[in-house]
Request: fold
Amino acid sequence: MPIRGCVRWWLPVFSLTCAYAQDALLPDATARTALTLPAPSVSEKWKFFVEETVTPFTLVAASLDATASQLTRSAPLYGKHFWPTNAFPKRFGATVGDDVSQNFFSDFLLASMLHEDTRYVRKGPSRKVWPRIGYAISRAVITRTDAGAATFNWANVGGCAMSAGLSNAYYPPVSRTVSDSLTNWGTNVAGAGLTNLMPEFGPDVAHWMKKHLPFHH
Reply:
């Protein structure tokens, strides 16, 4: 899909292969429900934003995303070649900026203002695979209030829109178009849903790898 952020369509698959290394960071919430989760405070939402952003995975994801958009010549357009005009470093920096701003707006600012709980609660292996996939992706537009009730995910959808708008401050002029902003917004919303496949299935893959691969024994 030749648009900025296309790597997010296969990034979760890559992430699953590395899930065993992050097993301790992915709590098994199989037995939890929205009603048993305590409402997060504003400070806890800030901590969540920091923990999901200040991690090597952010740089890995940005590198893959920037590489894909460079190869497909997608917005933001900094040039055809990776290095002669510093196109790739600029793309990488822009991608990091996009990811950080999206996390900030969605998981802290709007989540706090709108009293939404954007933490992901996995269905777990007791459910069938396809319903779990659908559930994970749907969390991009459906979430919980701090009180535990289901609600439209205004924090994510609105945060992605704010991030796409902010990107115009550092994207090159050729990529500051309404079309590029809308594409950026749409792929960020979709990418948020697909990225949920990692916490949903990551612990399962980690368990399988520890059980079957010799270097885990």
User: Anything to note?
Assistant: The chain has a mean pLDDT of 83. Helices lie at 11-17, 42-53, 56-71, 87-113, 129-138, 154-166, 178-195, 197-212. The two ends are 40 Å apart (CA to CA).
